[in-house]
Amino acid sequence: MKIHTRLPAYALIFILLMGTAWGGRPAMAAAIEFTDSLNAQVNKAADQAGGTKGTKLLKQYADFSKLQKDLAALDSKTSTLRYDNEARLTAARKKLKEIDKSVITKLDEQVKTAKTKYQPLFDSYSSVSKQATAAKKLKDKALYSLLKTQADGLKVASTLARQDIRNKESALQAAKKEKTRKSEEIRKILDEVDPHKTKIKSKKSAITSSNKLISTEWSNFKAAVKKGDADRSSDTLARLLTLSAQVQKNKQSIFNLEEKIAVSILKAEKKLP
Predict the structure, then answer these.
(1) CB 46, CB 230: distance < 8 Å
(2) By three-state DSSP, how is residue 232 classified?
(3) In whole angstroms, what is the distance from residue 26 CA to residue 191 CA?
């Protein structure tokens, strides 16, 4: 049994690792290259070993090659989802700050406009009231009576004006309270993302550790197969398959966590304006 499907010398299969979205980039393992030259060396070592050993070596090599392709595909799928999540999360947090902003701005302007509008009335009421008090002290009954009548009329108008201001202030405070309620509800949903990000960071750390070992084992494998040492080549491939399976498991976990992040973001988006 030989490796019949050969990759051109320039074709490379990389151990691609996760990017920087949640907690930094893990250390990248050395490039895994399946070249014509390496394929030929594996075939030669398998031929020299013959029988079961040769067949086992070829199968291990083919399995490892396929696993690297699967990892690359998983990386691509995860990266697409991760960057989409990052963009949507940024947009959601931006919209969160804008919740009911126009409503609150409008109500705030109404309060300020009302206060400015009624201030001359309040000033007149205060002035006439002081004049009435002064006239009373001077015992000028006619003047006092006139000023008191004016003051009473201004008092009614001022009371209505202050109530109008209070109503507008109450509407403003209610809008702010509602904004806080909405914001807290959505923020709580977005906070669901943080535990997932923490888990992703842990998975990336595990991937980094595995990739360091993979780099060493890959170098050992290439050295062994170049010498035609089928036994050592098979042993290193066995370790490479085990380590790569661990990487695959952790990368699949990262993808699953990214999916959970996407679900949380969608829940928040549905509550955003």
Answers:
(1) yes
(2) helix
(3) 24
How many CB atoms are closer than 10 A to CB 103?
A: 15
What b/e string do you get for 85-102 counting C-beta neighbours within 10 Å, with b at 16 or more?
bbebbeebeeebeebbee
How far apart CA 147 and CA 177 sit, in angstroms, is 43
Q: Give dist(CA 262, CA 232) in Å, integer.
A: 45
E strand segments, the chain: none
Q: Which residues touch 70 (CB under 8 Å, ≥6 apart)? A: 248
**SS3 assignment, position 222:** helix
Residue type, 42: V
Alpha carbon distance 245, 127 (integer Å): 87
In sequence order, which residues have a C-beta less than 8 Å from that of residue 217 and are 6 or more positions away? Answer: 236, 239, 240, 243
Indicate the pTM of the whole model: 0.77
Structural contact between residues 92 and 190, judged by C-beta atoms closer than 8 angstroms = yes
User: For 163-193, how does the pLDDT look when each residue is reduced to its tens digit (9 = 90+)?
Assistant: 999 999 999 999 999 999 999 999 999 999 9
